[in-house]
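Q: Could you fold this chain for me?
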Amino acid sequence: MNDNFYPSVTWGIPVSDGNLPMLSSIWRDQSFTTWLVAINQTSSEVLVLQTVRWRMRLHIEVDPDRPLGQRARLLEPIAQEQPQVVGKNEPIPSNAMLKPNANDAQVLMWRPRTGEAVVVIPPKHEPLL
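A: Sure. Below is the predicted structure, expressed as structure tokens.
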């Protein structure tokens, strides 16, 4: 399996009528737990082989007025934490096998420096309560 992470960010203010590039920085802090499993095709039993935790953090400064290839600069952290194989495998929570999955639960929010936050793109599935 190849599960690549391809985030995208809008240059303009997603809730305005204009399309001026206003992006000034990107902050991202995401943690993940991933399980490598074997599934018995006859019984549907799931056997956890490895549990891996990892975290991706970054802070990028953006200047949309600079030339292409010079607009973004990584401020921190320069080196990412390496994924950690957990010594004792953890069971997969039952809700991890149901929707919403991570991609369907993502939300795009616009948080201006002043004023209220706005949901630009809601989750594909509402969270279970």
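A (continued): The helical segments are 102-105.
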